[in-house]
Amino acid sequence: MDALTAHLDELGHGLVTTVQLTVVTTLGALLLGVVVATLRVCPVPLLRSVGMVYVEVLQNLPLLALLVLFVFALPTIGITFPLFTSAAIVIAAYEGAYLAEAIRAGINTVGVGQAEAARAIGLTFSQSLRYVILPQGLRAVIQPMGNICIALLMNTSLAAAVGVVELTQAANNVNLVEAQPIAVFTGAGLAYMLLALVIGRLTGTLERRLAIVR
Amino acid sequence: MSFLHTSFTRRRALTVAATAVTVALAAAGCGDGGSAPTLPGNAGGEKVAQSVFDAAPVASDAEIPAGSTMDMIRKRGYLNVGGSLDAPLLSQQNPVTGQIEGFDADMAKLLAKYIIGKPEVKTVTIGTQTREAMLQAKSVDVIFQTYTITPQRATQVAFAGPYLTSGLAVAVRKDETGIKGVQDLAGKTVIVGANTPAVTALPSAAPGSKQVAFATDPQAVQALLQKRGDAYVQDFTLLASGAKANPGMKVVGEPFTTEAYGIGLNREDAQFKEFVNNWLKKIQADGTWAKVWESTLGSVVEGGTPTPPAIGSVEGS
């Protein structure tokens, strides 16, 4: 236990970075997810293909490979982002693909009649999406989106591999001094668990508040 | 929904196209990610000659009592070694032959030869975070992984040796003139290897420096060349081999720490530790140690073969 309490400062900084990374990327991924899901159901074939290629490419590459590519390959063509920004962009883009699929599943739960009725009363495609389809579609998939957010939280630990000192990296550094892997990583694991529980509770509450009674 | 309708054939064609893009990207990733194009083996070093292994000592039956760890290993027929596959000159897998080459890897083979009679090892790649746990759980017999002996670690595991000493040094880009050694690192961004002694040594050796840690040595070298930091602090021998493979980087100043590397063993097994220490003394005395050093680390380090460190000379060993 001493191994943990003697380094609370260092671990605390790591925890804060993990939370920051999670919040920033969740927001980015949600935005991207809605946009990409919209692309995938939109009536223009070209846009539909763009959305699909995005999802297929991002979903089918390991996140670590994407991170390493983004951090080490981009500078060779003259584009260098700070490490935290790089990690945030890549994780948001990656999780955005997963969220897009969840949101698309939500859109598909909305009855065809709803879309037809929306168009019949003169709403444009984007209006029917905004006022009719998405509000119902998103509510149907709050739980899966929450799960993806928890996965996102866990995936932020991969940022350690590209030099971001988040919770996992901080735990690594503490363990290097203390050589107490079981205590140190159990502590870090509990912190991740707590964060995941918070996300879980949050999605549970949201779902109860926003559920549509059909 | 009407606006969701797409023909199935078109969708399938698109999936194929997207898959192709994925595969192409992944392939490109392989090319860029493995950013150490030159094999250190080709950078001047040569493999340890078979004759060294042939001439290496084998323990007498009297040294291996029935029921001991050594006896168990001999009966099993191979030595379970915890190590790395990506440490140039120390323990790196040759992509052509699949063999693991380097100082640590060859020492492990020599120990296997000493116990079993033939250099049969099974190398388990382990992270530096889990070494203590792996030894405590007896998942590996020994760890050869530039395992720095520290008093804290010695409360968890036993160290035979030290079998090699080295130190941390500073590398910079070729065009850098402002940094001539560790004393010039204050206020600079310094790249370090994650979970290496540099992480803990830097705050006292170079106060006011900012650390950025990367998971592997090739990544750290790449990061230095891409200006993600002003300097790279790492083990001297690793830097020397890195500088040989990458003309864009150079080593400045002398090593500023002394790291004594030990062979990690289970802490409960005093008999095995004594056995390994006796083996180390033997191969140091008969010149095997020097031969292995010359054909691995000696290929990049200038100056003659060093004297092997005295067994038990470090706190914790």
Could you characterize what this model shows?
- The complex is a heterodimer of chains A (214) and B (317).
- Chain A has 10 helices and no strands.
- With 214 residues, chain A is mainly alpha-helical.
- Chain A has a single domain (2-210), classed as MetI-like (MetI-like fold, Orthogonal Bundle).
- Chain A starts with a helix and ends with a helix.
- Chain B is an alpha/beta fold and 317 residues long.
- Chain B folds into 2 domains: 40-166 and 260-299, D-Maltodextrin-Binding Protein, domain 2; 168-252, D-Maltodextrin-Binding Protein, domain 2 (3-Layer(aba) Sandwich), CATH 3.40.190.
- In chain B, 37% of the residues lie in helices and 21% in strands.
- In chain B, a hairpin with a 3-residue loop joins strand 2 (86-87) and strand 3.
- The model of chain B is unreliable at 1-8 and 28-45 (pLDDT under 50).
- Classes of the chains: A mainly alpha (214), B alpha/beta (317).
Gross geometry of chain A: flat
Query: Radius of gyration of chain A, Cα only, in angstroms?
Result: 20 Å
Q: What's the CATH topology label of the largest domain in chain B?
A: D-Maltodextrin-Binding Protein, domain 2
The Rg value of chain B, from CA coordinates, equals: 23 Å
Q: Largest interface, per-chain counts?
A: A-B, 47 and 48 residues
The main sheet of chain B comes to: 5 strands, mixed
Q: Could you name the CATH class of the largest domain in chain B?
A: Alpha Beta
In sequence order, what are the helices and strands of chain A, one letter per element? HHHHHHHHHH
Q: Could you say how many structural domains of chain A there are in total?
A: 1
Helix/strand structural class of chain B: alpha/beta
| Total helical segments of chain A | 10
Highest-level CATH class of chain A? Mainly Alpha
Proportion of residues in β-strands of chain B: 15-25%
The oligomeric state of the chains shown is heterodimer
